[in-house]
Amino acid sequence: MASPTESICKILTLLKRSRDFQTKVYQNQSSGQSVSVFYIESLVDIDMMVKYLYPYLIHYPFTSLQHLADVLPLEDAHLSSAPRDVQQKLLEGYLAIQLIEQDDLVLLVKAQKKIERTLTIPEVEFSVVGPKESFIESLETNLHLVRKRIPSERLTVNLFRVGSLSQTKLAVVYVDGIADPENVQTVIQRIQTIEFDEVIDSSYIVQIICDNRHSLFPQLLDTERPDRVAAVLAEGKVAVMVDGSPHALIGPTTLVEFFSSFEDYFSNWIIASFFRLIRLFSVAFSILITPIYVATLNYHYELIPKDLLGTLITSRKEIPFPPIIEVLFLELTIELLREAGARLPTKVGQTIGIVGGIVIGTASVEAGLTSNVLLILVALAALASFTTPVYKMGNTIRLLRFPFLLFAEMWGLLGVAFCFCILMTHLLSLTSLGRPFLSPLFPPRWGDWKDAFIRLPFSEQAKRPLSLRPKQPLRFNSDKAKAKRDIENIDE
C-alpha cells in the first residue's frame, strides 16, 4: 500500500492537470520556512486569502503546521494526512498547506467562494398570505431557514454525500422524539444505497428512492417553502434537502396532501375547507369531463336531455371527425400551448399561451374541425387542472385523462368505470416510504380526517397524524386549546 505522502503527491499531480489549480510557494520572513499552498482558483475566495492567510504565512513566526492552525483567524483549519480527505476538501474550496520538509501532513483551510442568489418569494407555491421566503440552492442557507423556525435541540440533521462523481451534499432532517425511527431509517438506508454517478437536484433523489419507480404519481412531496417543511417536521415527517436544489422532499406523504395548499393554514378553516373541496372537484372534472363527452356521444346519447342534445347536434353537424379525434386534437393543442409557454421566455410565453389559445380555438371552430361545446369543455378542464397546488401532481393529472379517453372510446361509461377501477387498484397498492399512499382513506383512520378533505380548526388538531406513527402522538392539550381565555377568568 502506498504511503500517505505518495498518495497525496499523486492527488496533487492529478489536480495540476487542470489550469485553475494553483500552487504558490511563500517564504516566511521570520523563520525562513518555505510554505507551499495548493488550491483550485475557481472555488476559493482570493480576497479572504489575502486578508486572513497571507500575512500569517509571510510574517508570523510559526514552527509547525499545528502552530499555524492555532493562530489562523479562520473558522475551519485542521490537519490531515488522509489522501481521500485532502482530495475532497480541495474540491470543496479548501486550501492545502504543506511545509517542504514535512510533506506527509497537510493543513486544510476553508476558503470557499460563496456565490448564491438572495432569498426570494416562492414562485411555484406562491401565497397571498403568509411568509414570503423560499429555499435557494445553498444547503447551509436552507438548513438555516428551517432551524430558524424550529429552534429546538431535537431537530436532527444527518449529512450524506451522494453521487460517485458529483459528491453532492445531502441532509436528512427530522425531529428526534417525534418522527418514527422506522421512517427515518428507511430514508437513510435508501440514500446510503444510492448507486448513481451524478446527483444535481432533489428530483433525482425522488426517482431513485421512491417505492414504485414506474408510477405516474409522485410518492414524495417536494416544496420550496421553509414554513411547510417546518410544519411537517413538527408532525413527525422526514425531510430530505439536497445542496444545489431549491426544493426539499417530504415523506411519508399521502394523496390528499398534494391537493392541499399551505395557504389553507393561513385562512379561516371554513374558507380553507371550501377551497380544498373546490380543488378536489376540479381534479375530478379535469380528468373525467372529456372522456364522459366521448362516451356519451358514442354510446349513451339517450342520457343527454333533449334540449341539450339539439345544441350538441347543431354544434357537431359540420364536424367530419368522430368525437375521439376531435377531443384528441384539442387536448394535444392545449398541451402544445402549455409546453411552448413553459419553454419560451416569460413574457413571450405568456403571450403565446393567451393569444395562441384564442386564435387556434376560434379558428378550429370556424374551420369545422371542432365543436364550440367541446372547446368550452376542454378549456374548463385545462383551467381546472391548474388548481393543483403541487406542480408534479398537476403533470400527473394532465396525463391521466388520456387513458380514460381510450377506455371511453372503446366501452363508453363502462370503460370509464373500468379505468377508474384500475386507477384505484394502483393507488391502493402504492406506498410512500412503506406507508399507505391513500391514508386516511385506506386504511381508514378517522382521526386523520380532520386535515384531509377539509381542515378543522387548530383546536381540533391536538393529535399528530396516526399514519405517521409518531413517537409523541399528542401535540397539545386540546381542553386548554378550546377553553376561552377571557381576561376575567384567566386566573381560574
From TrEMBL:
Transmembrane feature ranges? 277-299, 373-391, 403-428
Which regions are flagged for Basic and acidic residues bias?
477-492
Q: What is the lineage of its organism?
A: Bacteria, Bacillati, Bacillota, Bacilli, Bacillales
Q: Which Pfam families match?
A: GerA (PF03323)
Q: List keywords of the entry alphabetically.
A: Membrane, Transmembrane, Transmembrane helix
- Source species, domain of life: Bacteria
- This protein is called Spore germination protein
User: Region Disordered: start and end of each range?
Assistant: 469-492
The family line of this record is: Belongs to the GerABKA family.
